[in-house]
Amino acid sequence: MKAYFGRRYGFSASHRLHTDELSEAENRATYGKCNHPFGHGHNYVVEITVGGPVDPDTGMVCNLVDLDACVREQVLEPFDHTNLNLLSCFEKFVPTTENLCIEIDRRIRQAFRKAEIFSVRVEETNNNFFEIEHSASGSGSTAGRK
Amino acid sequence: MILLTRKADFSAAHFYWNDAWTEEQNVAAFGKCANRNGHGHNYTLEVTVAGEVDAVTGFVVDLKQLKEVIEREVISVYDHRHFNHEVPEFRSVIPTTENIAIAIWKRLEGKIPGARLYKVRVYEMPDLFAEYRGEA
């Protein structure tokens, strides 16, 4: 039987939303307070949901120890207590939480082999989150505001 | 179609153990969850149903009825119990969060008046959940 297993993780980082493609005035108009010159930070929550058959021997979709190790290595250690704008993966992309979600999804899907990644959700604050969901018919992304 | 979710809580004890394995294999696979004295959690259950909004009542499902079904079929059987020792479906099935979600689906399927069961999500802790959507 196919079931889903989800786990939530946290890391803290700073960022500034700014792109050289726009003028200073356009950046301010587009990003508002997220464009303040010295950046600001968030306690991000990353929710990873994997899907797959429940192993009859273990009763598990995958062992959470393996998922924890993968997320720690691929996401928490490289991102926690950093300035996202200075990381190589954001050299060409603005570190919006949409792009952060895409980057985390890419890393986890590449590295985790024990179960299929069903969705990756990144909560920037308690009131907004971004999510990429994978299904048989393809991927979709959603963004929400509580 | 619209989805509606109702939450409920229960507290229960369990441990993870596969009788076909040695003690070493069980400890290697399940870690501290293999302690046969058991341990417990405050579980949170989210039951999501799907249906159409009734033109007269504006309801997908009568929430009071849904609450009563969840209480009767799940909470009264699981709350303040030991899964391995007291809940029949876990005599031969390991009470992992995944298997608990599947068992709750089986308990609720077909018993909710006027709506279709869409998904069952069980939080073992705030940072860990399992979900079953009736897939084979």
Automatic annotation (TrEMBL), chain A:
Q: What keywords are annotated for this sequence in UniProt?
A: Lyase, Metal-binding, Zinc
Q: Name one GO molecular function term.
A: 6-carboxytetrahydropterin synthase activity
Q: What is its EC number?
A: 4.1.2.50
User: Catalysed reaction(s)?
Assistant: 7,8-dihydroneopterin 3'-triphosphate + H2O = 6-carboxy-5,6,7,8-tetrahydropterin + triphosphate + acetaldehyde + 2 H(+)
Give the domain of life: Bacteria
Cofactors: Zn(2+)
Report the pathway entry.
Purine metabolism; 7-cyano-7-deazaguanine biosynthesis
The text of the family note is:
Belongs to the PTPS family. QueD subfamily.
Enumerate the PANTHER family for this protein: 6-PYRUVOYL TETRAHYDROBIOPTERIN SYNTHASE, PYRUVOYL TETRAHYDROBIOPTERIN SYNTHASE
Protein name per its UniProtKB record? 6-carboxy-5,6,7,8-tetrahydropterin synthase
Organism per entry: Acidobacterium capsulatum
From TrEMBL, chain B:
What the entry lists under Gene3D superfamilies is as follows: 6-pyruvoyl tetrahydropterin synthase/QueD
The residue stretches assigned to a coiled coil in this entry are: none
Which InterPro entries does this entry report, sorted A to Z? 6-PTP_synth/QueD, 6-PTP_synth/QueD_sf
Superkingdom assignment: Bacteria
| Molecular function via GO | 6-carboxytetrahydropterin synthase activity; metal ion binding
SUPFAM superfamilies per the UniProt record, alphabetical: Tetrahydrobiopterin biosynthesis enzymes-like
So, what pathway does this thing act in? Answer: Purine metabolism; 7-cyano-7-deazaguanine biosynthesis
Entry keywords, A to Z:
Lyase, Metal-binding, Zinc
What EC number(s) are associated with this protein in UniProt? 4.1.2.50
Cofactors named for this entry: Zn(2+)
UniProt enzyme class:
lyase
Q: Which reaction does it catalyse?
A: 7,8-dihydroneopterin 3'-triphosphate + H2O = 6-carboxy-5,6,7,8-tetrahydropterin + triphosphate + acetaldehyde + 2 H(+)
User: Its family?
Assistant: Belongs to the PTPS family. QueD subfamily.
Q: What is this protein called?
A: 6-carboxy-5,6,7,8-tetrahydropterin synthase
- The organism is Acidobacterium capsulatum
